[in-house]
Structures are given as structure tokens and as C-alpha cells.
Amino acid sequence: MASERTVIVFFAGNEVGGAATHVATWAEALRHAQVHSRYRFVSLGDGPLAERLRRMGMLSGQVTGTAGAVRGLTAAIRQERAWILHSHGPRMNILASFAASRAGVIWTATIHSHPRYDFEGHRLKAALFPRLHLWRLAHARGLFVVQPALADVLPCRTILEVPNAFRPRPAQLAREDAARLWRDRLGLGPQARLVGIVARLDPVKQIDVAIRAVARLREMDVHLLVAGDGRDRARLQSEADACGAADRVHFLGHLDEVAELYAALELHVLPSKSEGSPFSILEAGYYGAANIGADVPGIRRMLRDGEAGLLVPPGDHDALADAMRRMLMDRGLCAAYVERFQTLVLPNYTPERMVVAYERGYTVLEEDALRSGWKLPIDGVREEVSR
């Protein structure tokens, strides 16, 4: 086998949320890791994620458009003499599949969420893009998943697991001070109890379930802090008005830094109908907030079947309200869940584990390709004998 493989990592420059954190954490870890591969990160257009990698010195190039992206990727593969093209995100996966086919290289992708829900809330896109995405995924040499349950819906024989990773940055304030800071910002009294969600405002997150749950806790001075933005914001604000909780639901918009917010929360809730491997749960647990999540595969696995956080049926606001009430009335229970989370969960989601998983996965994909007749590039010449 050749001495060093080149991998082109393709992502959307304007990506936000969990997939963006995954790519950025991986890129940062690679700056200090000793690996077999040479990595080149290429973005589709500009945006927060592209800028983040640019500041790290890890952004190698950009492509634009649709046809232009396929041409640009193909040219980058040939210029870099890459063996592997690795994409992130449904649209990037579709484009990368065509570029890899043109260039005759191994194509893989990381699947961060259930393909069925990627375009929920967009009627036309939801009808078309999931099918197109799944059709192209069938052309991958293999696929990485951030949690095993995603493999059940993917049209690919080789499935490789890679953990999300969290690189902790200590909060600048103690938890009591952070809570006081946020109460003051929102004009709340000293007895207000703070629970929160950090997520894009998207139908799949089911934030309306959390809003209705807070509305049920009328006997408690509970406030829901929602950090994030998205197309669902107007509907969620209307939901808060309709259930009489507008004065207890606070939409904070996008926050560049969330450490102090997590540190201020007693509880972090995530009522999503589907999740891959949510960073928000990792971050909340690290900063000391107890987690309550919907009982869906990605959350159930991260909370160790309820050992490291409470699980509630997805879509059930009454069950979520009961779980929140139980936790808020028992600070010792909250503390026990946080301790178990930090002991049992966090060590499994380190950047070093992510880097190792990708490197091992590439070796598996190469060996599989070689068995099927694909030849490694020699002196810049690439040959696809059979597929």
C-alpha cells in the first residue's frame, strides 16, 4: 500500500449545528494528530464553518454552484492526487457522488441524521431530496454513521461507526454566577428555574413539545431558554403565545458561545423525533446540566438507556413536564445524573477517538475497493478497473 493517502473532505461552508461541530472538531484534532492520511478540507461556498476552518489554517479550497462544484471537486481530486472523497450533508453527498464517479476515486460520507427528516418542513424538498440522496448513497464504497441505528435505513453494505467528539472548553463563570447572569439578562427573579435547549429551530427538534411541557408547570417559576435560529421560529413563538407560556419561553437567537448558557441551566431538554449523536447533550452534561431527552435511538444510546439522563416518549409533552418537575424538585437526582454522564458518557466522545475511527475506516474502504479491482494511484495515475 502507498505511503500516504490523500483525503478530500467536502462540506457546506454555511453549515451550522451538529454536523458543523463534527467537522470543525475533527479538523482541529487533525492539526495535532499523527495520522496516515493527508487531509484537504474543501467547502461549498462560504459561511461560518468555512470561516472557522480558515482561522484554523485547515481550509484548502472552495467550490461554488452545482455543476461548478462537481467540476471543482473533480479538479481538486486530480490536483491533490486524492484517493478518497469524503462528504458531509445531503446536498454535499449528492454532488460528491458525481465528482467521485468522474474521477474514479473512493467516495464515502458521514451520515449525521436520518435522511428522511433532513428536509422536513420544506414540502417540495422533502418529497424529492431524500429519495435522490438515498439513491446516490447506494453508490458509496461505504458510509460512516454517528450512531448504529442509522445503518438500518442506508442502502450501503459497508457501515462504519465514528463517534461525535467534544473538546471541552471550561466555562468562565461558576454555575451559580452563570445562572445569576442569565436571570439578570432576562429580567427574572432570583428564584427562577432555568431549563434550556440549544438547537436549530427545525420541526425535527420538536421544540414545541418543550414549550407545552413548560406551560404545564404553572406551579413552578420555570423558564425555557431556547438558543438557536431557524425556519421554525415564528411557529414556535406562536405556540408559546397560544399555550400561555410566552412570558416563560425566551428565544435567544444564535449564540456564538454557549458555555455560560449551559452552565446556567439546571436541565437541558431535547425532545427531537430523530437524532444522530447530539452535541448539545454532550455539551450540557459537561457544563453540569442534567439531560432529559426523547426516547429515540441516538439519544437513548448517548444517555445509556436512561442511566445517564431521563428518557421520555417522543412527542409527549405531559411526560416531559412530569420528568422536568421530578428533576427540578430533587437537586440530588439532577446531580447524580450529571455525575454518571460525566463518568460514563463523556470519555467515549473524544476527538482522538474520532480521528482513529476515521483512519481505521479509510483502511477498511481501501481494502474493500482493492478486493473489487480498484487500483491505488501510482505517480498520479488513477485507474478504476472494475466497480
From TrEMBL:
The UniProt entry, under SUPFAM superfamilies, shows: UDP-Glycosyltransferase/glycogen phosphorylase
Which GO molecular function annotation, any one, does this entry have? glycosyltransferase activity
**Its domain of life?**
Bacteria
Give all residue intervals belonging to the Glycosyltransferase subfamily 4-like N-terminal domain: 16-154
Organism lineage string: Bacteria, Bacillati, Bacillota, Bacilli, Bacillales
InterPro entries referenced in this protein's UniProt entry, alphabetically: Glyco_trans_1, Glyco_trans_4-like_N
Q: What is this protein called?
A: Uncharacterized protein
Q: Which residues form the Glycosyl transferase family domain?
A: 182-339
